[in-house]
Every structure is written in structure tokens, then in C-alpha cells.
Fold this protein.
Amino acid sequence: MINPMKIMELRSLWDKFQNAHPKFPMFLKAMSQNGIHEGTIIDITIQEPNGEKIQSNLKITAQDMELFEQLKQLSSEMQ
């Protein structure tokens, strides 16, 4: 069972994150509206202030879809 106080703390942190980075939640919303499907490739690049980049990608599997569905349900419960 999830601790309700942790959920409230997480919600507060998420609200602050959204205010600081408004384009990222819009990106997530657009992504969720289009949906993530099995076979989708997610490519992530992180660039450090010194210019160093770290990159990875993954191809979504059926098992991953189960995780995304659970996260989606948890997200809707937090709203």
C-alpha cells in the first residue's frame, strides 16, 4: 500500500516541477494522447552542463505496456 503522505509530497514536488518546466508536462500529455504502443522506441539524451552527453533508447515490449498502464492508473489516482 502506498503511504498517502508520500503521495501528497510527490504531488507537491510534481506541481513545482511543472511550474519550473511547463513544456515537459505538455510533452507528456501529447505523448499520452497519441499513446505508447508495443514496438515504440523511446530515445533519451541527457546533456551535462559541460557538454557531455549520455544517450540510451529502448523498444517498448508487451511487458512494458503493463507497467505503463499501472503508472497511468496511479497518476489518475493522484489527481
